[in-house]
Design goal:
There is one protein chain. The chain has 128 residues and is of the alpha+beta class. It has helices at 13-25, 60-63, 69-86; strands at 42-47, 52-57, 92-97, 100-101, 115-116. It has three helices and five strands, in the order H-E-E-H-H-E-E-E.
């Protein structure tokens, strides 16, 4: 089920990106569940001149991950799509964990390179 959250406009783009990710990491209101493991925090966020965002998350994103392939896809694309859909200056997202590049969060999604927007995992309708 899609969840919409308001993030105040901010300048520069990196500050807006931080707010978007921090909002994604916040606890979801019941009955919704977050795709990102609870306790995950944003350590740092950088944006290159090419439009690649580097999102450095705490180790909780891997340590508390459930391990399923669908859960990993949703966690990754929650972050990637939140930035690439809302901020045109960001075209791709590289997820880091504790300041380091990682191969994957739970063994299913290749994180060795920046990822582009993928709306295949987004629904705009509420299931009946």
């Amino acid at each position: 089920v899609p969840a919409q959250r308001e993030v105040p406009f901010g300048e520069p783009v990196v500050e807006q990106a931080r707010r978007i990710i921090e909002t994604q990491l916040a606890v979801s209101a019941a009955p919704l569940l977050s795709a990102i493991p609870a306790g995950t925090t944003l350590r740092a966020l950088y944006i290159s001149e090419r439009g690649d965002a580097f999102v450095d998350l705490s180790a909780d994103v891997t340590a508390k991950h459930t391990g399923g392939s669908m859960d990993e896809i949703l966690a990754v694309y929650t972050i990637v799509n939140a930035l690439t859909v809302n901020l045109p200056a960001i075209t791709r997202v590289q997820i880091l964990v504790d300041g380091k590049e990682v191969d994957t969060l739970a063994g299913h999604v290749d994180l060795r390179n920046p990822l582009s927007k993928n709306l295949a995992w987004v629904t705009t309708e509420n299931p009946s």
